[in-house]
Amino acid sequence: MIKSVSRKLLSAVLLTGTSLAISGCASVPNAQSGMEMTSPRSADAPPPPVPPVAQVQPMPASADMKAVLDALAALGPQPLTSLTPAQARSQPSFADAYARVAQQRGIQLKTGVVTTTDMSYGSDDEQMARIYRPAGTAAGANLPVVVYYHGGGWVIANLDTYDATPRYLAEALNAVVVSVEYRHAPEFKFPSQHEDAARAYRWVLDNANEWGGDVERLGVLGESAGGNLAVATAIHARDRGWMMPDHIVSVYPIADSRKDLPSRTDSAQAKPLNTAALNWFGYYYMRTMADAQDPRINLVTANLTGLPPVTIVNAQIDPLRSDGETLAAALRRAGVAVEQRVFDGVTHEFFGMGKVVPAAKQAEDYAVGRMRSDMMR
Predict the structure, then answer these.
(1) What are 118's strand-pairing partners?
(2) Which of 105, 276, 277, 332 has the fewest CB atoms within 10 Å, i.e. is most exposed?
(3) Is 318 a catalytic residue?
(4) In what order do the strands lie in the sheet with 310-317?
(5) What Rg do the C-alpha atoms of the chain give, in angstroms?
(6) How far is residue 194's CA from residue 339's CA, in Å, rounded to a whole number?
């Protein structure tokens, strides 16, 4: 089991090339004209032109997954690529659709089994975390600890949007789960989110015992942009000699900046995430085009040696599916123990929807089982 260098001592950019930062804005390409345009720092800035993408019908979703997709459509969200970040943040989410289907089926998503407390780990309003604990947990309980990073392309979504997964983890693992919020782009460009993720991880190491947690049994899990942060934060910990997690779960991570990956084509028209949306996220998130090649984003080029075991979960109908496959291959080349599974008939954002989508429950149980085997040794 890997814990630290010394045991006592942690999107979605598909563009290549370089550019210059001008007046605090990043210069990125206009996918339609080939000219460069500025990437703003305002959440009210208009979206970039929509790039041409493959007109390929995505693979069919399972009946239960389709029920959530249909519920989302009924909520009437506008195409992400037509919105500013401020507008996108107020749109109905996949979590809203999941809640609607659960309500229609008489399924209760929240119970009194898990309690939550919000705390700050930094001075900015977004530098806060939500601590999930089994009801009745007291200091000294010595429960396992999981640090969780949510998705949203580093531009949208928040702790409320991604409540289901940390709530499930706290109950399934009988653990203290710390769901980390971080500053969002475009107001705070890369690498602000990675810096916040690392700062929050260090804060958890220093304070988890006060919440009844034991960091000697430590896991990290993230979804989408958060799946990237889970791996990048473990690399950060390794490089600084901090205590390492026992296990990393990376769910449909942003990990490979190449534009020609198979899933960019076969899931170009997928929902709720499509290939054009990846360009939208990158436009608002990057400072310059060179950020796409930074190993914190382009994880397949990072130094991955010495990481703990990794589990990668992917959805079949997802433009980020290939990222998980190429990241798994890179981890194997680095000598890291890794398993990667693609779950058929489901889309991006399916993880955490186990009370409605059977494949999501399978993925959640798979991830928890893998994490538990290393955390409970």
Answers:
(1) 130
(2) 105
(3) yes
(4) 114-120, 128-134, 176-180, 143-149, 213-223, 247-251, 310-317, 338-347
(5) 19
(6) 24
Q: Give the closest residue to 205 by CA, choosing from 150, 248, 149, 243.
A: 243
Marked catalytic residue, from 179, 247, 348, 374:
348
- What is the spatial distance between Cα 56 and Cα 43, in angstroms, rounded to a whole number? 31
**Local confidence pLDDT in tens for the 377 residues of the chain:** 334 333 222 233 333 222 222 223 344 544 433 445 567 899 999 999 999 988 999 999 999 999 999 999 999 999 999 999 999 999 999 999 999 999 999 999 998 999 999 999 999 999 999 999 999 999 889 999 999 999 999 999 999 999 999 999 999 999 999 999 999 999 999 999 999 999 999 999 999 999 999 999 999 999 999 999 999 999 999 999 999 999 999 999 999 999 999 999 999 999 999 999 999 999 999 998 899 999 999 999 999 999 999 999 999 999 999 999 999 999 999 999 999 999 999 999 999 999 999 999 999 999 999 999 999 87
pTM of the complete model: 0.91
Residue type, 352: G
Mark 220-236 as b/e (b = at least 16 C-beta within 10 Å): bbbbbbbbbbbbbbbbb
318, 322, 323, 374: the catalytic one is: 318
Q: Which domains does the chain have, with CATH numbers?
A: 54-375 (3.40.50.1820)
